[in-house]
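explain this:

___
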Amino acid sequence: MSMKLFATINFYILWLIAVMLAPDSLLWLLFLFLLTALQIFLCLKQFNFKLKISLFFLLGLISWCVDTLISVFQLIDFKGDHFIFFAPYWLLFLWLAFIAVFIQCFHRHLQHVQLWVIAGALALPFNYYLGCKLGAGVFLQPLYAMICYILWGGGLFLLICLLNSMISRYDNSSQKT
């Protein structure tokens, strides 16, 4: 089985565990953490460009903070253990796993910026809608939450593409010197 296929299957298992089981059980949250750690390890093992991976994981943390703002402004009430006012841990693990899978599977296909922005603007709200329908949260203000996730979905993928382009230019210029 190829690493990309394994990464994709692992992410969807992570997503199902995160959405359906982790909010209600510390044991499933621990299992989710271990699967996320495995996903990150496989991603780090596959690539030597640590700067790119570090910056992409920073985007995972920023995405978790966006979920925190969505929660703080009471657009969605996420189930699960929270740290102070931050979004639940399972969302952090899910974002980090998503970024790892995205890097593993699509790092060579980021030149199509418009396509990724549209895909992100469509896919991200759909995933949150589906997650809430499966019980991971409750929409308190569904329209505003969807607008936020459409904007963040497009914005996140725009940031990923721009970040990838900047790092590629940096890598190319440092190899010439």
